[in-house]
């Protein structure tokens, strides 16, 4: 046995630590998605500190709320053709 590096004992390790996930969300479940943002936009929101994803979400919610409501077809609208 190496005196400078003894084997670990249960006493040295202590009680096991059980970690759970985040747990249930308090607010309605959000949808996991991927979105591409300009680097300067992401840098701005990240520079504001923790919770930047929630702030991006809030800005998008405010934008949607400021727009006239239209019936959604569930598909992205086609861009008008030039010409």
Descriptive account of the structure:
The protein is mainly alpha-helical and 83 residues long. The chain has a domain at 39-66. It is 34% helix and 0% strand. It has three helices and no strands. The protein is elongated and about 85 Å long.
What brief labels describe this structure?
83 residues; mainly alpha
Query: How does the overall form come out from the CA principal axes?
Result: elongated
Segments where pLDDT lies below 50 for 5+ residues? none
* Overall average pLDDT: 84
- Mind describing the biggest β-sheet? none
What percentage of the residues does DSSP assign to strands (E)?
under 5%
Portion of residues in helices? 25-40%
Tell me the radius of gyration: 25 Å
- List the total number of helices: 3
| Pattern of helices and strands | HHH
Structural class of the helices, strands and pairings? Answer: mainly alpha
Distance between the termini: 84 Å
Number of strands: 0
In brief, what are we looking at here?
This protein has three helices and no strands. It has 83 residues and is an all-alpha fold.
List the helices and strands and how they pair.
Elements: H1 10-13, H2 39-47, H3 52-66
């Amino acid at each position: 046995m190496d005196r400078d590096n003894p084997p670990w004992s249960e006493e040295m390790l202590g009680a096991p630590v059980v970690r759970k996930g985040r747990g249930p969300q308090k607010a309605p479940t959000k949808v996991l998605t991927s979105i591409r943002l300009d680097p300067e936009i992401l840098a701005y929101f990240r520079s504001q500190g923790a919770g930047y994803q929630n702030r991006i979400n809030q800005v998008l919610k405010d934008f949607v709320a400021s727009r006239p409501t239209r019936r959604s077809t569930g598909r992205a609208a086609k861009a008008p053709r030039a010409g």
